From TrEMBL:
It comes from Fulvivirga marina. It comes from the Bacteria. Keywords: Hydrolase, Pyridine nucleotide biosynthesis, Pyridoxal phosphate. The keyword Hydrolase applies. Its EC number is 3.7.1.3. Its cofactor is pyridoxal 5'-phosphate. This is Kynureninase.
Length: 422
């Protein structure tokens, strides 16, 4: 085969790609009539062409049936709507269908999960998070600690990379957990870190957290649909994610939660309740006394946001067709190809890839630390039709997504970047 630094090589990889037809299922944004190189599926995934149809079906049912749509919709009665995403989501996060439900938005769900799993006592009151966690998570944790009237600086334990490093070593996370083992109530980390792209070792961290007597939960915003997950098997206590990144379900799209079976069927776990979490057989009796549904369903508050969930179903259908295993296989190749091309620029000292090089420790995304003229380089990329994102103070994040990105996208990105730099 030809040299990998050529367009012909990339095109050959695309020809051999068993998932190549999926790109055509999405709307690709354009700049001056040409498809952009869309590398921001880690922020907002692209719109499936089928999304409009799914939403229009609900709009039609609403127009023709009004309130009757709750039970008599053509295809998907709204009363049951949260059930239609369960099978697909369970596969994506490695759960039983009863352990997952889509509802609300991510930060709201993190709060609901902390209501149940951050219940500080006199001796156990600390939360461990990664330093530099996504701001919304930091604010959520800060406000939970303050809600319990605990001293914030003492109750919050943050773990930082070693000096000169950009990612966390699993051994360091574990020793931090052990260090606080007598006072730790909750370990809450991301699955894939939004800034560095690091995929944490969920199994080992969960084991260590449990050994220390803490609950362990994950924010899977950047992990769901990006990396293989086994939440049930790894005995994670809870997780929450959003659907608008790798799950392509639209801006502000409905979030999802996972509650492990061992907690989901325990009606004594405290929670903030609403009628959609109440026993569905009796929901319309309008009686006093909350009786939770079994499993994650018992954490629902409100009736389903049907239009947002319709977009979710459209995207999950495509996801299911492609299959997580095949997507991961392509993702490893795609990101591996990007890494191999960028290595040349890294060796010349123009950028530093701070995402782990070990494929099991990352998803699609590579985070490029650009210390000289980073912002100007980023702006030039944007003008050249690359949609990436800039994260302060000096990182360009690029995420080739296996459902709709191509090896040609990767090559063209490298080509543009090289010309900008040299
Ligand atoms: C890790 C992480 N947590 C939380 C959020 C915020 O989610 P939301 O605005 O949907 O609550 C995001 C992205 O916006 C994120 O990447
Ligand atoms: N929802 C958004 C709305 C506006 C701008 C960005 C977002 C993101 O999702 C950012 C993403 N969480 C990130 O990892 O940076």
């Amino acid at each position: 085969m030809s040299n990998k630094n050529t367009l012909a090589y990339a095109q050959q990889l695309d020809n051999e790609d068993p998932l190549k037809a999926f790109r055509n299922r999405f709307h690709i944004p354009k700049l001056k009539g040409k498809d952009v190189i869309y590398f921001t599926g880690n922020s907002l995934g692209l719109q499936p062409k089928s999304t409009k149809t799914y939403i229009n079906e609900e709009l039609d049912d609403w127009a023709t049936l009004g309130v009757e749509g709750h039970f008599h919709s053509q295809k998907r009665p709204w009363f049951h709507y949260h059930k239609f995403s369960k099978e697909a989501l369970a596969k994506i996060v490695g759960a039983l269908p009863s352990e997952v439900v889509s509802m609300n938005s991510l930060t709201s769900n993190l709060h609901l999960m902390m209501v149940s799993f951050y219940r500080p006592t006199k001796t156990r009151h600390k939360i461990l998070i990664e330093s530099g966690a996504f701001p919304s998570d930091q604010y959520a944790v800060e406000s939970q600690i303050k809600f319990h009237k605990l001293p914030y600086n003492e109750a919050l334990v943050e773990i930082s990379p070693r000096k000169g490093e950009h990612t966390l070593r699993t051994e360091d996370i574990i020793s931090k957990i052990e260090e606080h083992k007598d006072s730790l109530a909750l370990v809450m980390l991301s699955g894939v870190q939004y800034y560095s792209g690091q995929f944490f070792d969920i199994q080992k961290i969960t084991e260590a957290g449990h050994q220390a007597g803490a609950f362990v939960g994950f924010d899977l915003a950047h992990a769901a649909g990006n990396v293989p997950l086994e939440l049930h098997k790894h005995e994670v206590d809870f997780a929450a994610w959003c659907s608008y990144k790798y799950l392509n379900s639209g801006p502000g799209g409905v979030s999802g939660i996972f509650v492990h079976e061992k907690h989901g069927n325990n009606p004594d776990i405290p929670r903030f309740a609403g009628w959609w979490g109440h026993n569905e057989e009796e929901r319309f009796k309008m009686e006093k006394g909350f009786k939770p549904m079994e499993g994650a369903d018992g954490w629902q508050l409100s009736n389903v946001n049907v239009l947002s969930s319709a977009a979710h179903l459209a995207a999950l259908e495509i996801y299911n067709e492609a299959g997580m295993e095949a997507l991961r296989e392509k993702s490893l190749k795609l990101t591996g190809y990007l890494e191999s091309l960028l290595k040349e620029l890294q060796d010349e000292g123009f950028l530093q890839m701070i995402t782990p090089t070990e494929p099991n420790a990352r998803g699609c995304q590579l985070s490029l630390l650009v210390t000289h003229n980073g912002k100007a380089i980023f702006e030039h990329l944007t003008q050249s039709g690359v949609v990436a994102d800039w994260r302060e103070p000096n990182v360009i994040r690029v995420a080739p997504v296996p459902l709709y990105n191509t090896f040609e996208d990767v090559f063209n990105f490298y080509d543009i970047l090289k010309k900008v730099i040299f």
